[in-house]
Amino acid sequence: MSLFPNVPKIQYEGRGSKNPFAFKHYNPQEVVLGKTMEEHLRFAVAYWHTFVASGTDPFGVGTAVRSWDSLSPMDKAKARVEANFELMEKLNIPFYCFHDVDVAPEGATLAESFKNLDTIVALLKDNMKSTGKKLLWNTANLFTNPRYVHGAGTTNNADVFAYSAATIKKGLEVGKELGAANYVFWGGREGYESLLNTDMKLELDNLGRLLHMAVDYAKEIGFDAQFLIEPKPKEPTKHQYDFDAATTLAFLQNYGLKEHFKLNIEANHATLAGHTFEHELHVARINGVLGSIDANQGDVLLGWDTDEFPTDLYTTTLAMYEILKNGGLGRGGVNFDAKVRRSSFDDEDLFFAHIAGMDSYARGLKAAAKLVEERVLDEIVERRYRSFQEGIGADIVSGKATLASLEAYALQNNPIRNESGRLEQIRATVNEIIFSV
Ligand code: XUL
Ligand code: CO
């Protein structure tokens, strides 16, 4: 039985197609720089936004109209599994991602929650087997339930720490059972509201301890997923410890965790931190920890995590440029951690939103490939830094220079000349490329 009977299978029809149920740019088998689009992009559906979110906002109840709305919690969970695989099939999306509580309702006790989860995981496994769809990552939701009011791994309450650890243990077992490619840690409540009542050192040490326990347990059970941390500066916590890529990297290094983790970089989290998406991707890339991305976008006029489907081509191009420069995302992928607007309440909107996001990333990939192939930015950057390729610059880079040798050079080097950065001209060049693909 179909849950989306009004939606056909979405095919690639190419540029100029007027069919709203068709891809204009995402052509899975098209080869770009030696790999198919499908291999480059590894798209994933975010279960929570697509099958659970109802369109609530702080001033209003849900607006989404779904066929499973009136069912009991367990039947609803089962209907959502059907919906997930039908949507993935129709959109030709190979992966999905979920939090434990997205797929199965919490019970009255931890044991009951685990039991519910086991029932749904068995169903997910059957569907994965029959459809060939895969799990990009799973995670434990350690932020919604009131028990996490003071944090999970960084709580002041050891009982909550223990509960969180048990939930992560189960998450790792579920990930292994479903063959997850990655396992994500996003610390929505791992931060603080005021230093007046916070022992920051103990909280961070405990978070380090919890992540080491997770690394050890994954090894013990032979779960070989890539561990990912997803930085975010705030919301829900006022000051979140994994603020941005650089802060998270310092944390991982401090606690001896860097070799076990990569980063899952989310576009809207980057902008909330006061960075561009490409900045965060770049920081992760040059430090060797770019693992996966949560593809969405914020709204410049709104200061919170709006999680819109990504449609800004400038951003998707520069994001794909970083990903290509990284040699791809490896086991990671492009997860649509994005929700339809509250006013887009029909089932069909779920499909239109994914089509828009997938086409925007496909077009970003094509434009980025052109930037790479034609060495447009490489040439600009190499030229800009050419003073470090010979003479005194080469001495600096090779480690030969000292303060004394640089003083001797500077004393006789008059006057110093700088060159224009040519930024407007460069931006115009990038525009030409984006609109040519
Ligand atoms: C919240 C967010 C999460 C993580 C997974 O802003 O991005 O959904 O992606 O917990
Ligand atoms: Co996210």
TrEMBL record:
- Enzyme group, top EC level? isomerase
What GO terms are given for molecular function? magnesium ion binding; xylose isomerase activity
Q: Which UniProt keywords apply?
A: Carbohydrate metabolism, Cytoplasm, Isomerase, Magnesium, Metal-binding, Xylose metabolism
User: What is one GO biological process annotated to this record?
Assistant: D-xylose metabolic process
Q: Where along the chain is Mg(2+) 2 bound?
A: E266, H269, D305, D307
Enzyme Commission number, as recorded: 5.3.1.5
Q: Which GO terms describe its cellular component?
A: cytoplasm
Chief location bin: cytoplasm
Its needed co-factors are: Mg(2+)
- Per UniProt, where does Mg(2+) 1 bind? E230, E266, D294, D337
Instruction: Cite the cofactor comment.
Output: Binds 2 magnesium ions per subunit.
Instruction: Give its localization.
Output: Cytoplasm
**Chemical reaction(s) catalysed:** alpha-D-xylose = alpha-D-xylulofuranose
Read off the InterPro entries from this record.
Xyl_isomerase-like_sf (IPR036237), Xylose_isom_bac (IPR013452), Xylose_isomerase (IPR001998)
List, from the UniProt record, the residues annotated as the active site of this protein. H99, D102
Which family does this protein fall into? Belongs to the xylose isomerase family.
The annotated subunit structure for this chain is: Homotetramer.
PANTHER family under this entry?
A: PTHR48408, XYLOSE ISOMERASE
What this protein is called in its record is Xylose isomerase
Which organism's genome codes for this protein?
A: Cohnella candidum
> What is the primary gene name for this protein?
xylA
